[in-house]
Specification:
Blueprint (H helix, E strand, L loop, with lengths): L6 H19 L2 H4 L6 H15 L5 H16 L6 H13 L25 H10 L3 H11 L5 H11 L11 H14 L5 H13 L9 H14 L5 H13 L5 H14 L6 H13 L5 H14 L6 H13 L5 H12 L8 H13 L5 H14 L6 H14 L4 H13 L7 H13 L5 H14 L6 H14 L5 H4 L3 H8 L6 H17 L8 H12 L7 H12 L3 E7 L6 E7 L5 E7 L13 H12 L4 E5 H6 L11
Parallel strand pairs: 3-4
Antiparallel strand pairs: 1-2, 2-3
């Protein structure tokens, strides 16, 4: 049947189409469904465009309308955007609405230049396959941009390869200026999308887009109540990722998130929000408490691996160690899911639990087993260094993991390791008391090759302390030249008290080895000793019990005796009747690696250096004391 008879037939047909659409999108089931997919949205837009487009043949119009209906029948998903389009269709298809009459083309008709309407322009921008094509469209049609085409431009821009952004400075200036002018009239969703696009495209710095970043905070504040939950999360992420987060904006977004009680946030939004605020250094206790409570309330089954690791990282970074949340995250990760974690996610989980001080032996055992199973080939240098640091900090013994990290780092010749990665790796192995001559030989060679360039004061002190602890044979090439001490002298006023104390132990090690390496400048040596001897020494109940037992046997005991040569504080100096002295170290659980009987690196270093400087040293480990109070080295006093 030819449906091109007249305009009246076309009008009736459109009303019929609208009725069928109304049935499809008007049911309760479809009202409660999720967002419509891309095909549905495209169909609605095309429907509106086709009704307006009077130059299109009616038969072609009818065919395309039926195609729209078939797509919709396949599965309509209705959202707020869909409702707006459906309302527009309803207005067009009312029986009383005058319909444009089709007219036949005449040979007398003069050709008219093609002018894209809003929908066509938006579609064309979305189809641009290269950046030159996208920019050309903006230059040709930019004066006709509305909020839809502006959003389409930036959404496509962030997905296309861009090369050097400085080269685009002049071509992007007009659209950036236009964006600033249009921000007051765009919707909350479009503000969020623009911010997200700018952050994704890395449009930051002193360029035309700086004016957009300057205008965005006010646009966000004005429309904050209209943002949906994902838009709030994306906006917080965008400002942090671009380095444009401000305390005022962070406070406003945080307050809005807390006000909504987070029930409508998807798992990815909860995770991204926590990540954004932790990265920005905005550790709102109220916000993190609310996120933790909501995550625990709903359970973590809906969190994917990245959500879990990002959430753990964010809470550790913000210093908000929620025991309930960390327990839940540990249980969820251990429940057979670590096999699908990416290497960075494994490393981040370990780092987060260690940094938060949340003991979870089951999680660390599972991460260690998974990392060793993968042979660490997919771990990048930071993942390797962070994993080693996490296990050392958590005091979780895993010789298999440390052996694997050592082997992989040596195999790569430490390529790609930053100075912090190098020093953290050395510190972790020393803290764990895990000797690895091959690794430390490679660390020394790499530090020498770089001339210690890029090593800050903490990197220098951690590296020096680590070598002192493990006392590897190959160290002359690192400390023999004056490079190390010169670098330390240059940073003398920048060292923390902890770093100065570590350098004091390095100086003791230099004497211990009888090495002829250059010494630290005298002023720095004195500062190091002063920092070392003023460290707070606290006696434990365990130490007091041991001292009481020694005194009960008739010996004279002095607690926290300072060794004048080394500066070490001896837990208990026992003087026998014949004048002989015994240095006694009372070693509680923190002096041992994890739950093992292997002393930590710090314990090994202190005992070794005290013996070197002439002390007869006896250790009273907690695990032996708990079994028997016998002090076999203490003679019976008369």
């Amino acid at each position: 049947m030819d449906r091109a008879a007249d305009a009246g037939t076309l009008a009736v047909d459109i009303v019929r189409v609208h009725a069928r659409l109304h049935i499809l999108i008007g049911t309760d089931r479809n009202r409660q469904s999720l967002r419509c997919d891309a095909k549905c949205r495209w169909s609605i837009l095309k429907l509106v465009e086709l009704i307006y487009n009077v130059r299109l043949g009616p038969h072609a119009l009818w065919t395309k309308l039926l195609a729209c209906i078939e797509i919709l029948r396949a599965g309509v998903k209705k959202d707020a955007y869909f409702r707006r389009q459906a309302t527009g269709i309803d207005a067009l298809a009312r029986p009383n609405t005058p319909m444009p009459s089709p007219r036949r083309k005449s040979s007398a008709d003069a050709p008219r230049p093609a002018r894209l309407n809003s929908w066509a322009l938006t579609a064309k921008l979305g189809k641009a396959s290269t950046l030159p094509e996208l920019l050309a469209l903006q230059e040709k049609h930019g004066d006709r941009f509305d909020r839809f085409s502006l959003g389409a431009f930036w959404s496509k821009f962030k997905r296309l390869p861009r090369g050097e952004l400085d080269a685009l400075r002049d071509r992007l200036a007009p659209v950036c200026e236009q964006t600033v002018r249009m921000l007051p009239e765009v919707t909350a969703r479009e503000v969020a999308n623009i911010a997200h696009a700018f952050a994704k495209a890395k449009l930051v710095g002193s360029c035309p887009w700086e004016s957009v970043w300057a205008a965005l905070p006010e646009a966000v504040r004005l429309k904050l109540g209209s943002f949906d939950e994902q838009e709030l999360s994306n906006t917080a992420w965008a400002f942090v990722a671009a380095g444009h987060a401000t305390p005022e904006l962070s406070n406003a977004i945080s307050a809005e998130v807390v006000r909504r009680q987070l029930g409508g946030f998807r798992e990815i939004a909860l995770s991204s929000t926590a990540w954004a605020f932790a990265t920005a250094g905005h550790a709102s206790a109220e916000l993190f408490k609310a996120i933790a409570a909501e995550a625990v309330r709903r359970g973590l089954g809906g969190f994917n691996e990245q959500n879990l690791s990002n959430t753990a990282w964010a809470f550790a970074k913000a210093g908000h160690a929620s025991p309930e949340l960390f327990n839940a995250m540990s249980a969820e990760a251990v429940r057979g899911r670590l096999g699908v974690f990416k290497e960075q996610e494994l490393s981040n989980m370990a780092w987060a639990f260690a940094a938060a001080g949340h003991a979870s032996p089951a999680l660390f055992n599972a991460i260690s087993a998974e990392a060793v199973r993968r042979q660490l080939g997919g771990f990048n240098p930071q993942d390797l260094a962070n994993t080693a640091w996490a296990f050392a900090t958590a005091g979780h013994a895993s010789r298999e993991l440390f052996n694997a990290i050592s082997a992989e780092a040596v195999r790569r010749r430490l390529s790609g390791f930053t100075p912090q990665n190098l020093s953290n790796t050395a510190w972790a192995f020393a803290t764990a008391g895990h000797a690895s001559p091959a690794l430390f030989k490679a660390l020394a060679a790499e530090a020498v090759r770089r001339g210690l360039g890029g090593f800050n004061e903490q990197n220098l002190s951690n590296t020096a302390w680590a070598f002192a602890v493990l006392n590897p044979p190959s160290v002359a090439e690192l400390f023999g030249p004056a490079t190390f001490t010169t670098r330390c002298a240059h940073l003398e006023t920048s060292f923390s008290r902890k770093s100065l104390a570590q350098l004091h132990q390095w100086s003791l090690w230099r004497k211990e080895r009888g090495a002829r390496w250059p010494a630290l400048p005298r002023s720095l040596q004195q500062a190091c000793r002063d920092a070392f001897v003023t460290q707070g020494e606290k006696s434990s109940q365990f130490q007091r019990n041991v001292v009481e037992e020694i005194r009960s046997r008739g010996a004279n005991v002095q607690e926290e005796h300072r060794c004048e040569i080394s500066g070490y504080s001896i837990d208990a100096l026992v003087t026998l009747n014949d004048g002989r002295q015994i240095a006694v170290e009372v070693d509680g659980p923190l002096h041992f690696w994890g739950h093992s009987r292997q002393p930590t690196g710090a314990t090994l270093l202190k005992q070794r250096q005290l013996r070197h400087f002439g002390w007869r040293l006896e250790s009273v480990p907690f695990w032996r004391w708990n079994h028997t109070k016998e002090l076999h080295w203490l003679p019976i006093m008369s």
